[in-house]
Amino acid sequence: MFRDTITDVFFDLDHTLWDFEKNSALTFEKILVKNEISIQLSDFLEVYIPANLAFWKLYREEKITKEELRYQRLKTVFDDLKYSLPDDIIHKMASDYIDNLSTYNHLFPHTVEILEYLRPNYRLHIITNGFHEVQNKKLKNAGISHYFEQVINSEMAGVKKPNPYIFKLALEKAGTYSQKSLMIGDSLEADIQGALAVGYKALHFNAHKEPKHHHCEMIDELIEIKSFL
């Protein structure tokens, strides 16, 4: 479908290649014990997962800072679970989380297979809203950093997806044009609508089991990319 027009493929990282929810759960399993927090992991994650997504949306919209995101997503969970913790412990847990997250390296099924398939014919890149120090560790520790020519993060760009500037910066860094570029990501708002607005083609990796939409084609497994490229 895109074979004759695409030269550069841009991936999101978290929730698209790197299995954020699985790696995050393993991280919390470790640091809850480390910090002697007597909450069941399943109870914690039930509140944390939607809270984290909500705070990331605020972060994308420039309504909170990185530091506020890291603190508030934990503070909210403990408050909702009626588990009292002093601020210094919450800040320590926020730090422990960042320190440990990239040590877990679960990827979505077929990640390496599809990168191997694409690399001979396309230049591959990353556009991520994640933090510079963490995202580079994730790529390296998961053994996939060598597949990507350019890794564009929101701290480098000074803005976050879906802001048009980060997509334009990615094109500039890659030395290509939007008409020759395909964006693959899990977020309809940040990845798909953001990329389409700048002229990229887009493919929505439906990691969250969202309903069908008219913006672009959707896939449920990364291996389905072979049908398009």
Automatic annotation (TrEMBL):
Enzyme class: hydrolase
Keywords, ordered alphabetically: Hydrolase
Keyword Phosphoprotein: no
Classification via InterPro entries: HAD-like_sf (IPR036412), HAD-SF_hydro_IA (IPR006439), HAD-SF_hydro_IA_YjjG/PynA (IPR011951), HAD_sf (IPR023214), PGP-like_dom2 (IPR023198), Pyrimidine_5'-ntase_YjjG (IPR052550)
Transmembrane portions of the chain: none
Enzyme Commission no: 3.1.3.5
Pfam families: Hydrolase
GO molecular function, one term: 5'-nucleotidase activity
PANTHER family: PTHR47478, PYRIMIDINE 5'-NUCLEOTIDASE YJJG
This protein's name: YjjG family noncanonical pyrimidine nucleotidase
Biological source species: Euzebyella saccharophila
